[in-house]
Design a protein that fits this description.
Elements lengths: L5 H8 L3 H6 L2 H9 L7 E4 L8 E5 L5 E5 L6 E4 H18 L4 H23 L3 H6 L4 H11 L6
Antiparallel strand pairs: 1-4, 2-3
Helix pairs in contact: 4-5
């Protein structure tokens, strides 16, 4: 971290609970280390939160959706990424006015989608996993198959 920029970082983190959460991945990591984990090592994002997912274009001009921030990626426990993603979904949902019962549904769907993606990846070769992309049509099919309907 650049010492001169720390006051700006701290100011931005004060904007909301979600902003604080985004700026403190290392605090959550310390807390998660104290919890039971499977110790199944995989490549994790290291900072899986909803703002680190988004749309981008492939070289083939396809609209893709996925993780777009890899600066914290490393070998770690899958639970860490899933827990961080779930907390971020809850905080972002609260910040955007989601009702409590809809937030619960959102967290259930997030977990179901994560589980679905892991099962799919486990049926793929390492090469296929490496080159896998999630196109917009894949997203539409996934939303339809999982019955995702969300409202505030």
């Amino acid at each position: 971290m650049i010492p001169e920029l720390l006051p700006l970082r701290h100011k931005r983190m004060l904007a909301s609970r979600f902003s604080f959460f985004r700026g403190t991945a290392e605090l959550m990591e310390q807390d998660l280390k104290k919890q039971a984990q499977s110790n199944i090592p995989i490549v994790i994002s290291g900072d899986a939160h909803v703002n680190n997912f988004g749309f981008y274009a492939s070289p083939e001009r396809q609209l893709l959706f996925g993780l777009n921030d890899f600066d914290e990626a490393r070998i770690g426990n899958w639970e860490s990424d899933l827990k961080r993603l779930l907390v971020s979904a809850e905080l972002a949902g609260e910040e955007n006015g989601f009702a409590k019962e809809n937030l619960y549904d959102l967290l259930q769907l997030t977990t179901k989608t994560y589980r679905h993606a892991i099962k799919r990846a486990n049926r793929m070769t390492l090469s296929d996993v490496f080159y896998f992309s999630f196109e917009i049509n894949d997203m539409i099919r996934t939303i339809d198959s999982l019955g995702m309907v969300m409202s505030r």
